[in-house]
Amino acid sequence: MKSASLPNKVIVKAPATTANLGPGFDVFGMALEQPSDKVTIIPIPKDIKIKVSGLAADTIPTDPEKNTAGVVAKHILQEFSLKTGLMIKLEKGILPSVGLGSSAASAAAVAFGLNRLFSLKLDHKQLIQLAAKGEIASAGFEHADNVSAAIYGDFIIIKSYRPLEVIHLETPPNLGICIAIPEVSTSPKKTEKARSVLPKTVSMEKLVHNVGHAATMAAGFATGDVDLIGKSMSDAIVEPARAFMIPGYQKVKERTLKAGACGAAISGAGPALIAIVNSNNTDTSRVAEAMEEGFKSAGVNADTFCTRPGKGVSLLEVKE
């Protein structure tokens, strides 16, 4: 069991995230100010127990082997020889299976929370490597774009996976974000399905297109140019292959840009769409309304909201 000098409980807040942003497949990620999850971790004598409440709680497995939070917790307990059990309470504010990093939030929160609970003194890179293991439970493989954004906050670039190298950039203060979540059914292994439709080979022309737009987007974040960021949200490889999975995809993008958005793309594996807005000259609520109308014109209802880039996972409460 843990030392009496260590906390008896931690409560952690983890942000929703968006990945890819168009050309940055498995490379770009960004944290959102809202929504977020609240995760409570309490040491218990043995085993890992998970309780889930909040949005779509009945769709989230509580078996530690099938839950991203449980997978991360089990791995950390084993790796650091921590002889204890855990009660993990997930209060989901992030709707799962829509492309907003719900599973990544749970994974990042547990890695961050256990680091504090047991004073493991892990840095961001180590936390990301541990949290990425949890994505196996939801996506079938490790990927670090969402968990990196959840841990660092703002905008991240995965330079490489082996070894893991993550670049963190702050976001411009006038970067507004609109999200539209269409009411469409998604499969339990949605991310795996979304990856299965991707092309196995890519033409040099499309590769050059994506490299150019990804490089320009990184420059946009580095210089704080929201318009440049938005104009770079063009993907010639992944989005065209996935567009058929989102009813109204093209109509929504057209209406979004016409309403003044700088750019729009599928958020992660979807079906949510994200629009980038320069809030200095465009009303974000107007863009969100256009996104909703775009989906309606395709016969699909959609929930929309506006937010901003957010900070990384944070400690809400610690009980000694």
Provide tags for this entry.
single chain, Ribosomal Protein S5, domain 2, 10 helices, 2 domains, Alpha-Beta Plaits, 36% helix, 11 strands, alpha+beta, 320 residues, seven-stranded mixed beta sheet
Q: Quick recap of the structure?
A:
This protein is α+β, with helices and mostly antiparallel strands and 320 residues long. It is built from ten helices and eleven strands. The protein folds into two domains: 9-170 and 310-319, 2-Layer Sandwich (Ribosomal Protein S5, domain 2), CATH 3.30.230; 175-307, 2-Layer Sandwich (Alpha-Beta Plaits).
Structure commentary:
The structure is a single chain. This protein has 320 residues and is of the alpha+beta class. The protein has two domains: 9-170 and 310-319, 2-Layer Sandwich (Ribosomal Protein S5, domain 2); 175-307, Alpha-Beta Plaits (2-Layer Sandwich), CATH 3.30.70.890. Helices cover 36% and strands 28% of the residues. The chain is built from ten helices and eleven strands. Strands 1, 2, 3, 4, 5, 6 and 11 form a seven-stranded mixed beta sheet that branches. Strands 8-9-7-10 form a four-stranded antiparallel beta sheet. Strand 5 (155-161) and strand 6 (164-169) form a beta hairpin. Helix 2 (102-117) crosses helix 3 (124-139), helix 2 packs across helix 4 (145-152) and helix 3 (124-139) crosses helix 4. The mean pLDDT is 93.
